[in-house]
Amino acid sequence: MITVWRRAATVVSVFVLSTCFTMLGSSAAQANPSTSTGSSVTGSLSARVGVDAEVTFESRDITFYGSLRTPTATRSSGIAVLLLPGSGPTDRNGNQENAMVFPNTLAYLADELASHGIASLRFDKFGSGRTGLGGSVPDTFDYGFDMQVDDADAALNVLGELTGTSASRTVVLGHSEGALTALALQQRTNTPGAGLGLLQPLSQRYLDLLSDQINASLDLSVQGGQLPASDADVTRSSLARTVQSLRENGIIPPDQDPLLGSVGLTSANERFLAEADRYDPAELAAGLPDSLPVLITCSEKDLNVSCDQVQRLRSAVAPEALTFTQLTSANHGLGEIGILNPGQFDAMAPLPLAGQFTQSLTAWVDLIEPR
């Protein structure tokens, strides 16, 4: 889910935007064994496969907390995976406790990987879980997207240290905004790994996607009689000026429509939005090594990122490197919703991973790590 930061570390999620606009009004690593059952402070459900160990590492003088999932399968794989979550203060399991959003996407991915004998690392992003704000005062921290890439880079190094896996045998799986983080990390490290997974990825520039979602929400509000068309036009015009200002000057215009502030377009988010928007996912994907296996997924029932948008990213990857799966029954969190129509609330629940997705992931894993 695409979300943006507020000073109080609250977020506005894209799945809410797509429903109704008016509803919003290096590192030293440690791994300590922990039980693999029961719930945690990060909202995880019982682990089905493997054992979690609590991990700490340092990035930007902040202590980050996470979980290293060690598979209990008799045959261990030769690869290890870093899992990167979507936007906002998303914890190691893919949940946002303050927003009551618990899809559990990353915990389920760790389960699925462990069932194939693959170790994985997931961690509480800045602002979430045990990591929290890392001692920062909410009214003073200045958080940017490049810092998010810094943290992912530190986690990738920790994954290698803890598992003894070389850089060439590591895989990065990024979900939603995490896919952009994964692409930026790949550009930074410039080290061909064993694979790169872009799951329901942010596929266009950040402010373009945010604009599409806000405009779609305005359309819904006008159609539902909740917002006059003239007011919606005023907001659209203000949104265009805000995007231009962020791209040219990195600031939110002081005369911005107040309604846009309610969806995260605030001065507190200027740095993150401006930095994230500088990255074009398709351009980053076009620069990937042809030898790097890439998995891209989209879903016809994803309310946040459409398959038409993902096509732009898909077209940029070398065909010989690409495995692409268009899912038919998964929501944005990769949860199985079957024949049901997607809605606001299914994205909040810990639905099992869609069967079509797990089959695709299994085939791709077998491709990069033959049995």
Residue share in β-strands: 15-25%
| Tally of individual domains | 1
Number of strands: 11
Instruction: Catalogue the unreliable spans.
Output: 1-28, 32-47
Q: What is the arithmetic mean of pLDDT?
A: 87
Q: Would you give an account of this structure?
A:
This protein is of the alpha/beta class and 371 residues long. The protein has one domain: Rossmann fold, CATH 3.40.50.1820. The strands form 2 sheets. Strands 3-4-5-7-6-8-9-10-11 form a 9-stranded mixed sheet, with helices on both faces. β1 and β2 form a beta hairpin. α3 crosses α4 and α5 runs antiparallel to α6. It is globular. The chain starts with a strand and ends with a helix.
Write the layout of secondary structure elements.
Blueprint: E1 3-5, E2 11-13, H1 14-17, E3 30-33, E4 51-59, E5 62-70, E6 80-84, H2 105-114, E7 119-123, H3 145-163, E8 170-175, H4 177-189, E9 195-199, H5 206-223, H6 229-249, H7 258-261, H8 270-277, H9 281-286, E10 294-299, H10 307-314, E11 322-327, H11 355-368
Parallel strand pairs: 6-7, 6-8, 8-9, 9-10, 10-11
Antiparallel strand pairs: 1-2, 3-4, 4-5, 5-7
Helix pairs in contact: 3-4, 5-6
Concise structural overview:
The protein is of the alpha/beta class and 371 residues long. It has helices at residues 14-17, 105-114, 145-163, 177-189, 206-223, 229-249, 258-261, 270-277, 281-286, 307-314, 355-368, and strands at 3-5, 11-13, 30-33, 51-59, 62-70, 80-84, 119-123, 170-175, 195-199, 294-299, 322-327. 34% of the residues lie in helices and 16% in strands.
